[in-house]
TrEMBL record:
Residues 26-126 form the Phytocyanin domain. GO terms for cellular component: plasma membrane. This is Phytocyanin domain-containing protein. Residues 1-25 form the signal peptide. The keyword NADP does not apply. One of its GO terms (molecular function) is electron transfer activity.
Length: 169
């Protein structure tokens, strides 16, 4: 009986930890519900968002019609100079991870689209999102401590744990 209760407590903590991790990173669908397109006011959309380290951009569009080209400088962005591209994607559902603070520039690679305004500038801020190290997917210890640093998650964990303990005694 005690073992069952203990594993229930452990499960609760694991669940809370998973929720805490989920809440710390945001996926930003570029252009909102309209997606990545020529007639979308992409800069208004960008200024309505807060991009934090650890967040992701998702570019949604019809593959073949558009693409996503990352540009290396403000000048290339201003002039729609696609020749200096750092990276290019064309799946129609492209995910870009914001790994560090700073400004990144994206444009459509289809001829003429960038000039028509199909481009966006994304400024990432440091934020307090814990950087999720890819090397430690499910090691013990760190996984528990990191989400528990969040006061809300900690309170929820304590609540769940004590609720179960009351049943024990
Ligand atoms: Cu385009």
């Amino acid at each position: 009986m005690g073992l069952v209760k203990s594993s229930k407590i452990l499960l609760s903590i694991v669940l809370v930890a998973a929720i805490g991790k989920e809440a710390s990173a945001t996926q930003h669908v570029v252009g909102g519900s309209q997606g990545w397109g020529e007639s979308v006011d992409l800069n208004s959309w960008a200024s309505s968002q807060t991009f934090k380290v650890g967040d992701q951009l998702v570019f949604k569009y019809s593959s073949g019609l558009h693409s996503v080209v990352e540009l290396g400088s403000e000048a290339a962005y201003k002039n729609c100079d696609l020749g200096t591209a750092l990276d290019s994607k064309n799946s129609g559902n492209d995910v870009v991870k914001l790994t560090k603070p700073g400004t990144r520039y994206f444009a459509c690679g289809t001829l003429g689209h960038c000039g028509q305004g199909m481009k966006v500038k994304i400024t990432t801020v440091a934020g307090n999102a814990p950087s999720t190290p890819a090397s430690t997917p499910s090691s013990s210890g760190a996984c528990f401590i990191q989400p528990l640093a969040n006061p809300f998650v900690l309170a929820a964990a304590i609540f769940l744990a004590t609720t179960d303990l009351f049943h024990l005694f």
